[in-house]
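Limitations

Structures in this collection are predictions, not experimental determinations, and the ligand pose is part of the prediction. Treat each record accordingly. The example that follows, with pyridoxal-5'-phosphate as the small molecule, is included so readers can see exactly what is and is not provided: the inputs are given verbatim, and the output is the predicted complex.
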Amino acid sequence: MNREPVTRELFNDVMVPNYAPGAMIPVRGEGSRLWDQQDREYVDFAGGIAVNSLGHAHPGLIGALQEQAEKLWHVSNVLTNEPALRLARTLCELTFAERVFFANSGGEANEAAFKLARRHGWTHHGPEKHEIISFTNSFHGRTLFTVSVGGQPKYLEGFEPAPGGIHHATYNDLGSVKALISKQKTCAIVVEPIQGEGGVLPAEPEFLQGLRDLCDENDALLVFDEVQTGAGRTGHLYAYEHYGVTPDILTSAKGLGGGFPVAAMLTTTAIAESLGVGTHGSTYGGNPLACAVAQKVIDTISQPEILKGVRARSDKLRKGMMAIGEKYNIFTEVRGEGLLLGCVLTEEWQGKAKDFVAAAQEQGLLILVAGGNVVRLAPSLIIPDQDIEEGLERFEKAVATLVE
Ligand SMILES: *Cc1c(COP(=O)(O)O)cnc(C)c1O
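Predicted complex:
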């Protein structure tokens, strides 16, 4: 192995250029703080894009991983394993679900969900019932099927031909769904309860209830993509509880593993029937290491005091961002639920969300964008008050450098 130091420049020499990572390279983390190669410290309001639900180097997660690492890493799905069975049982106990399929990423969980929806339509109604309705600006992953169901055409450009039978309606506009749905052809409606990548845009409760009703009237399945909103992010274990609308299929990833790759598709017994033996699979899905870590994540974040803490932290962070927004006249609103917040930039700052990320990094703060006009925050669900305060101070300094 070449022992020369690794630098950000090396990225350009050895990596496929599909990412544009920031200038610093983080090397370790603890809680909601990160340190780079030069031992510079950062407050983390990004949470690895809503993934590090319990921050960095959480002792409970380290313990769960180490304990499982010494026992069994992998057996494949030719055999089942204890951590996967325990985690599936927990998810069924805590949600509407009665059956679980494990995958390794959000895109894969959605791929499974969309295939199940098609297979369910095919099984019960025939091949004509295969159409999927999703929404413009939605995001469901980067596999060809999920990027086609997603509503951001730029992610599909150059990768066509896309799978057919997919229609895009307008988010929060029931009429646009009614215009596309049919009993004969529609097998599923796919929706994010809060559009994450699309700008942290929450669904209106009547909209989700309306989708539930339309699905029931048209024998279609309602699929909630909770890859970003799930695992405690909104202050509820899953956002569907907050809305009081229960889907037929729900996908979870990101925060579920707290940084270890794992994903789950949740559904009911009757719907799960359509994925019989041999119809779908994954080599790593349900891997013991991943499931042992996710078990610890779910056991921790499902505690009422943790979920209550998310709502308290949310208030503090939201108020702090709104105050900075007012002082410098940069935000029209701060929207979202729990610790998934989107600060919408004013007219003057349209398209400049990335400038805030760069300026914040200069001040020792990690934040995210959601499109060009929204600054997104998705910190650890247990971020200490002091880190919220310090992050807000650093954000204000960053804004001051931009507004000058
Ligand atoms: C991130 C995300 C995905 C894709 O997850 P990957 O793990 O990157 O495949 C899908 N849906 C939503 C809502 C997401 O936020």
